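step: validate -> pass
step: tokenize input -> pass
step: predict -> running
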Amino acid sequence: QVQLVESGGGLVQAGGSLRLSCAASERTFAMGWFRQGPGKEREAAAIITWTRGTTYAESVKGRFTISRADVGNTVYLQMNNLKPEDTAVYFCAARKLFGDNLLSASYDYWGQGTQVTVSS
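step: predict -> pass
step: emit ->
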């Protein structure tokens, strides 16, 4: 069972930046971040594979950057130019097998979620 420990998040004004971190207890094929806004379905934001291939949702391209630590199993999500519509609970997710990067059903392991609130 892969354990995921998230950190980061908080309250920021529009145009500001935040950084999320997610540490996994073991190596996985892919890790990333999904988010669920008020009254919305959970959606993928950014994913990175163990080969450092990345996938981004159209809504965050050019503003969010996902990366992996050189040592260990930690993934970071740098979020810049945040908008009120980025307000959501952000969940770290991981999977050990091949699958659709942007499909939540592809992921077997989930963090507890961290709140990101962007004020206008």
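step: describe -> The chain is about 0% helix and 50% strand.
step: cleanup -> pass
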